[in-house]
Amino acid sequence: GIIWEMRDTTTNHETNKQAIRSIGGVSAGGHFSNYSCNAIDIEKVVDVMFSWGPFYERHIFNDYAYRQVMNCGFYLDYYFAKMRDRALALRRELGARFVIAYVDQGMLNDVILSQKTHLESWHMFLRLLVRHDGLVILWKPKRNSIAHRLIAAEPELQAAVDAGRIRVLYGDSDAFKAPPVVAGLAADLVIGQTFNTAGMECCLAGTPTLFTDLSRLTRDVAPADEQGTTFFDNHETLERHIDTIIDDPAATSGWSQSFGRDLDSFQDGCAYRRTGLFLRLLRDALGSGADADRAIADARAAYDQMLSDGLPKVPPNTPRQTA
User: Fold this and answer.
1) Which residues contact residue 169 at a Cβ distance below 8 angstroms, ignoring those fewer than 6 apart?
2) Euclidean distance between CA atoms 33 and 197, whole angstroms
3) What single string gives the DSSP state of each residue in 182-231?
4) How sure is the predictor about 318, in pLDDT bands with cuts at 50, 70 and 90?
5) Hey, is 310 helix, strand or coil?
6) By the 8 A CB rule, do 210 and 202 touch?
7) Alpha-carbon distance 81 to 183, whole Å?
8) Could you tell me the pTM of the whole model?
9) Residue 4: exposed, middle, or buried by beta-carbon count in 10 A (0-12, 13-18, 19+)?
10) Is 282 helix (H, G, I), strand (E, B) or coil?
11) Nearest to 32 by CA among 149, 137, 177
């Protein structure tokens, strides 16, 4: 059998892996979130690790002896196309000359993202709104409650929301959030707070994206030429860069093509199909009686051969059989 898990920052991976191994099975999993550095609480101790791209294999999930690492692409890329009409309708509703989508992060006072840090970012955006009449900020907060706290703490932020210069894309609740890609596809430019998953998602969907990195976590893992063009360790430099892009939307912004391919080598909306293909091949190999090591090796060989011939087509839906 195969046990699959995606949850980040959990201590159950090792227990589940040992349990499935005891009956000859395999543990497998991927990562929900984008990480800019490795840490013990995000390491996935599974047999087969599904990462988004080579970057994560080299820099993030690199301290555990996996039996196999599969770089299959960003796991949510299938829904980009599904969100496009919703995003375009939102853009028409905004009626702005230039839209910046801001996708922020969590807020805790004992980590790098305190309320003060959040407000420093918002003071930058408020200055941009003063200088650029046709600018609207589309804010997709990490949680509704974070937006409420920040708006309550900064009167100018509330005034900009009331004036329609800032549009908050609230979710149904703190747990059920608005899809980041809706904000991203409705915008001309995306700003991610830290090298966050929401910003990564928007960039992979096709919108130029920049990231604040005030703690400089990306300096050890991202190429040097991405610093100051994709990642910014101070608001002043980022603000000037945003000014340039608003004045000239053709100005270069966002990561290089080579770095993007390192994060996700495919970017084709089919990550789920590659993941499912390997899991099916692994299931079949285990079902034929092969031990775990042989099954993983055989599944990888068959997977590589099938992908070299082109990703298999999805079979047409068949009518559900009823009694």
Assistant:
1) 90, 138, 139, 140, 141, 178, 182, 183
2) 6
3) HHHHT-SEEEEESS-HHHHHHHHTT--EEEE-TT-GGGGTS-GGGBTTTE
4) very low
5) coil
6) no
7) 13
8) 0.91
9) middle
10) helix
11) 177
